[in-house]
Amino acid sequence: MLKIAWTENYVLSLPPNHRFPMSKYEVLPQQLLHEGTIREENLFRPLPIEEKWISRTHKEEYWYKLRTLSLTPKEIRRTGFPLTEELVNREVTIMNGTLLCTHSAFEFGISMNIAGGTHHAFTNRGEGFCLLNDIAIAANYLLEQKQAERILVIDLDVHQGNGTAEIFKDEPRVFTFSMHGANNYPLIKEKSDLDIALADFTDDAFYLKTLDANLKNIFDTFQPDFIFFQSGVDILSTDKLGRLSVSREGCKQRDRLVLTLAYKNKIPLVASMGGGYSPDFRDIIEAHANTYRLAQEIYF
């Protein structure tokens, strides 16, 4: 069974300029339920994560300032969100969603989080709408519990996974692969184990060919035994922040490529949702929904 972590949203408490991108977390599960892709039993609502797992990844000083709402104004601005207790609680719950998804991935081959992909959170700071790094926390959990030895992070958001790269820069058991827009945020990139920087207006054909070749090479050389997939849909040509020219069908084929490789190689995979900022809300929902539709098609 496809198990999906879903954290309740807080759209109404945000300023108006933040509500649009956040509302997808409420609309997407309703769409998937309405069309019959999932049923209520596919969804689970995680509780907040234990603090010890946050401290395994993030600096204690940063976590203290975050949970006590004592970040400086500059640090708050860098995150992109107004800092509230509600926001921190939601973030902490999202972290546990991805961690718990690892259990379901071992059982069923795949599990997904309708949130997460918070790849701009560093060990000691948050930025780019990311306070804590769910992929890094869950990966460190697996390493500590000796449930995985070679973890691959496939980050296909249009923005480089700079926080994840920084967290695992000295960890050979985690291979960070980021394929992103060369001229997009962040201005200063970190060094992943493999970075593919794409030119503006990269189209479906070049994108998919590049991804396929590099993923196959990583699978052959690194031989992962667990995968985290950051499946942001801000690569779409319609995305107001993306700068690439990937179609909705191209984005779907991207997801098919990743999920099929994991499935055929019998490698457990957890997908986190990542970004998506197309002006037409339907483009965001349809592109994200395709990831879940493909998971059901390929695995179940």
TrEMBL record:
Domain Histone deacetylase: 18-280
Domain of life assignment: Bacteria
Protein keywords: Hydrolase
Signal peptide start and end residues: none
InterPro entries membership: HDAC_classIV, HDACs, His_deacetylse_dom, His_deacetylse_dom_sf, Ureohydrolase_dom_sf
Protein family (similarity comment): Belongs to the histone deacetylase family.
Protein name, UniProt field: Histone deacetylase
Organism: Chryseosolibacter indicus
Record lineage: Bacteria, Pseudomonadati, Bacteroidota, Cytophagia, Cytophagales
